[in-house]
């Protein structure tokens, strides 16, 4: 390879390398009990959780609220005809809080 080609390849890698290294993962989350909790726990800082079930019911029946201690995007898939529903189904009625945003989240 010619020196000029090597230089061009280096410049391209230097310019676009940080964008490629910071690639985020989109987790596709089906409706169900605890599926959102599982996805939040599995996600890394900067990931996106996409709720993909049309009109899906995402329930949380655990007595603990969901702690989000990292930067996440939680969104419905834009093409859904009916938006997802998040519902708390825990028997402990003393707290109706679903999410807790912790430092870093």
Overall mean confidence score, pLDDT: 79
Unreliable stretches (pLDDT < 50, length at least 5) are: none
Please give the share of residues in helix. 25-40%
Total number of strands = 8
What best-fitting shape do the alpha-carbon axes yield?
A: elongated
Q: In percent terms, what proportion of residues is strand?
A: 25-35%
Class from helix and strand fractions? alpha/beta
Largest sheet: 3 strands, parallel
* CA-CA gap between termini: 47 Å
Number of domains: 1
Spatial ordering of strands, largest sheet: 1-3-6
Task: Supply Rg.
Answer: 20 Å
Walk me through what this model shows.
Helices cover 26% and strands 27% of the residues. The chain has helices spanning 3-21, 35-42, and strands spanning 26-29, 32-33, 48-51, 57-60, 66-68, 73-76, 85-88, 99-101. The strands form 3 sheets. A 3-stranded parallel β-sheet has the order 1-3-6, covered by helices on one side. A 3-stranded parallel β-sheet has the order 2-4-7, covered by helices on one side. The chain starts with a helix and ends with a strand. It has one domain (24-101). The model has no long low-confidence stretch (mean pLDDT 79). With 105 residues, the chain is an alpha/beta fold.
